[in-house]
Amino acid sequence: MDDFLAPIQDAFEGQIDFSGQRTTELLSTALLTISGLSAFLVGYILQDIHLTFWTGLAGSLFTGLIVIPPWRFYNRNPEKWLVPSAGGKGS
Hints:
Layout: H1 2-13, H2 18-46, H3 49-67
Helix pairs in contact: 2-3
């Protein structure tokens, strides 16, 4: 049973490496900036505040879809952690 649930648990745990964290931060900043500017321009050109709101909301949802799930390309460079030794400070 654990063999069946392990891949599902890994998918929902959301582990990404440090390089992936940097990538998500840059992506979220860039995508939110682009969606905010495009929402402003669409609203200004068409003079419609509702369209501005919906354009900004669509851009935010798209950004969330790209950034929030732990996609595989966010975990390309996992850290190699040291194995704890048996004779540590506590023993």
